Amino acid sequence: MHSLRLAILCDFYDDQAISCVILAEHWLEDHPDDKLVTLKYAEMLYLLTRYDDAIQVYLDALEKFPENRCGIYAGLGGLYRYRGQFSEAEIWFRKATEANSDNATFFTFLGAVQARQGNLVEAEASHRRATKCATGCIDEAWHNLGLVLRGQGYLLDAAECFRKAIKLDPEYADAKEALRDVEWAMKKIATMPGAATDQGE
């Protein structure tokens, strides 16, 4: 691998945003068809809040790399999520799920921005769909499904989701913390006079 290209990717993974952008701009002048660097460049642009520039890079990439439209849609979704425009992010993440309906990650992204808008029922449906996918981060799908179920008060079901996430990834710290939370809540509820014994759907 060319040393400059390697430096760009190292800067990207080390979160060295401005260095990554400067080097990528130089590299892409002579290598405009480098898809990987183009997409990393776009992401670092929006992390620097150069939103319009990043959007243009993504839109140009859609024309140049149509075979990678799923990842580009997800990149645009990530941009709008980072910008706090969750309804716009939802549009692009939905496009990603339509372009690749068997990858859990895109459904998880979709469900996450639906949840950020307070649409927990829609988010639940997206995360449930994610758990049925064959590829992607299935453990995150179960964790996120548990989060939206917890938000709706379905503690037993949420706990089961967190356990499934932990079974897939025994080191999943966020899922372990969430499981402790709902188990603690259920213990507290059980001691309350007249408390319901079932917090499932």
UniProtKB/TrEMBL annotation:
Q: What Gene3D superfamilies does the database record attribute to this sequence?
A: Tetratricopeptide repeat domain
* Top-level taxon of origin: Bacteria
Question: Can you say what this protein is called?
Answer: TPR repeat-containing protein YrrB
Question: Which organism does this sequence originate in?
Answer: Gimesia fumaroli
Q: What's in the keyword line of the UniProt record?
A: Repeat, TPR repeat
Q: Where are the TPR repeats?
A: 70-103, 139-172
